[in-house]
Amino acid sequence: MRLFRTLRCKNCEKPTDFPSSILLGIERSPLRSSTGEPAIAIACPECKHVFPYIGSDLRLNHDDNPDQFALPGGKSVFAIKIQCDDMSCESRAEVRAIVENELSKKGIFDTKLPSTLPELARSWTLHDIRCAESHPITAARTINF
């Protein structure tokens, strides 16, 4: 049995499944919700809006798939670091996104960040995302690459 988390986007309300591991590290996250709870930034794969989500926003579900980390269609969850609006600030924020894996030359999926992720990040609309220093982040300026 596979346990997974289902998130309903705050913008388009489309449900999206994530591995339960999506919540790992949420307690250490510098991002906070409007109520002060630890949060993680997640990009909706449908509408491309990014919001902070708390643990209770991601509902626990299960199915009969034995692979605990399986997502449909060869997709994986990646975290990408983005720069806040204060370009002199060294603090970063992480956004988690579902992205199709790229096949390597060996015919297996690469675990490195997909080359399509920076382009995808530029299409995001960010809502209430801040770095650890509380600076706003209004555009996804990626720094992983």
Textual characterization of the structure:
With 145 residues, the protein is mainly β. It has one domain (2-142). It is 4% helix and 34% strand. The protein contains one helix and nine strands. The strands form two sheets. The chain has a six-stranded mixed sheet. Strands 2-1-5 form a three-stranded antiparallel sheet, with no helix packed on it. Strand 3 and strand 4 (49-53) form a beta hairpin. The longest helix is centred in the C-terminal third of the chain and has 6 residues, at 117-122. It is globular and about 50 Å long. Residues 103-110 have low confidence and may be disordered.
Note the main attributes of this structure.
9 strands, single chain, mainly beta, 145 residues, 4% helix
- For the termini, the CA-CA separation is 36 Å
| Portion in helices | under 10%
As a whole number of angstroms, the C-alpha radius of gyration is: 15 Å
The number of distinct β-strands equals: 9
Which spans of ≥5 residues are poorly predicted at pLDDT below 50? 103-110
Shape field: globular
What structural category do the secondary elements indicate?
mainly beta
Count of helix runs: 1
- Amount of beta strand: 25-35%
Strand and helix order: EEEEEEEHEE
Outline of the structure:
This protein is mainly beta.
Topology:
Layout lengths: L1 E7 L6 E5 L20 E4 L5 E5 L4 E6 L11 E9 L8 E9 L16 H6 L2 E2 L14 E2 L3
Parallel strand pairs: 3-7, 4-8
Antiparallel strand pairs: 1-2, 1-5, 3-4, 6-7, 6-9
